[in-house]
Amino acid sequence: MTTSSLNEAILRILPTDKDSDAWMPTSQVIKLLTDRGHQVDYPRQVRRRLARLERDKLVLSTIAGQQLLWQRKSWLHGANQMAGLMSASEAVAFHALRRFVGDKLPAAVTMDIEPLFKAADTRLSQAREDSRLYRAWVNKIDSVEPTYVLSRPPISPEVFQTAVTATFFERELLVRYRPAYRATRESDIKLKRLWPLALVESGGLMYMVAQSPEHPPRPDKGKPDWLRLLYRLDRIVSAVDSGEKFAYPRDFRLQDTIEREQVFDFLPEAPVVLELALEPGDSKRLEERRMSKDQRLEPLPDGRIKVTGTVVPSIKLRWWLRSLGAAVEILAPPALRDEFARDAAALAKRYGTAA
Fold first, then answer.
1. pLDDT higher than threshold 50 for residue 3
2. Based on the domain organization, do 32 and 119 belong to the same domain?
3. Residues 250 and 191 in one domain
4. Rounded distance, CA 8 to CA 49, Å?
5. With contact defined as beta carbons under 8 Å apart, do 207 and 232 qualify?
6. Across residues 254-281, what is the average pLDDT?
7. Alpha carbon distance 72, 56 (integer Å)
């Protein structure tokens, strides 16, 4: 027998005869389903599901006073029993999943698979011959930011989980958003209707890619596409899941947004051919990590290396060029060279050095 996602959620929620509270009333089942992000249109919907699961011999019921109580059959094992069936490879996979992406999963997912996380911990803690190597693996891997790390602005846990859950279930959000670097009073921030499409972490900040039903395509005004913007979660003052589902756009693909549109490079411009003169030591880095697919390197008469390639000018590209300091000279395009020349002159003046 196959079960729907709502049925599976119910089976995860219900206690067994091994739990201290072995029975659960229907009202509590509905509350926990709602807390985990599952949409319950009316109580009778859940009662019907429970009755069907009972007919399929997956759950049991009993009456206490005027309440109908439910219990899951113990064929769904607890953590200790599951650990006995879990391989070391599966255990280390769940352990790593919780460590690296556990905080980015919606409650509807994490609460449903929490028994698997516990089973993984139990399996790796057992005194088996292979346990030490698998247990040690997650402490042998990590990730480090490539640049100097500033402190991460705090995100309201309630806002974060609301955004994650609405994104997962494709439901509309009602958001009050504080614009960047503006001293705006919270009472002046207007409510926005947003359709959350994706969540992306970049440079220690968490962004939501969203479109608004209030800004649909307007071909008559030269706007054939949906307006899709980035919203930093730490700038969201409040977020409410409206419960209204939206039709996820077929033309949206997150990888295209990241790689082709390069919106996370911030303010991308039209592609240009970038020509740089680099000191030999710094040009070696570009032999290992290219700045573009069509990158070319050639020696210059003064001993430096000329690097040429097609790039998309953006804030991130400028950050990278500035991080090279005096080791780089921008040869082309002229507009970018002039921009950096003005910045260099201003910097020299600020430090009291002749340009």
1. no
2. no
3. yes
4. 10
5. yes
6. 90
7. 12
CA-based nearest residue to 90, from 139, 131, 140:
131
pTM score, whole prediction: 0.69
Q: Is residue 80 part of a domain?
A: no
Quick one: average pLDDT of 116-123?
84
Q: Phi and psi at residue 59, in whole multiples of 5°?
A: -135, 165
Provide the pLDDT for residue 35: 83
CA dist 208 → 31, 46, 191, 196, 201 (Å) = 27, 32, 16, 7, 9
Residues in the chain: 355
Residues 346 and 355: their CA atoms lie apart, in Å, by 8
- C-alpha 337/C-alpha 345 separation (Å) is 12
Q: Tokens 């969540």 appear where?
A: 199
Which single residue is written with the structure tokens 């097609």?
310
**CA–CA separation, 20 and 234 (whole Å):** 39
- CB of 206 closer than 8 Å to CB of 155: yes
pLDDT value at position 1? 40
Could you tell me the strand order of the sheet in which 24-25 lies? 24-25, 67-72, 59-64
Q: Is 145 among the domain residues?
A: no
Residue 2 has pLDDT above 50, yes or no: no
Total domains in the chain come to 4
Share of the chain above pLDDT 90, in %: 44
Q: Which range of residues forms the domain containing residue 193? A: 157-215+224-264
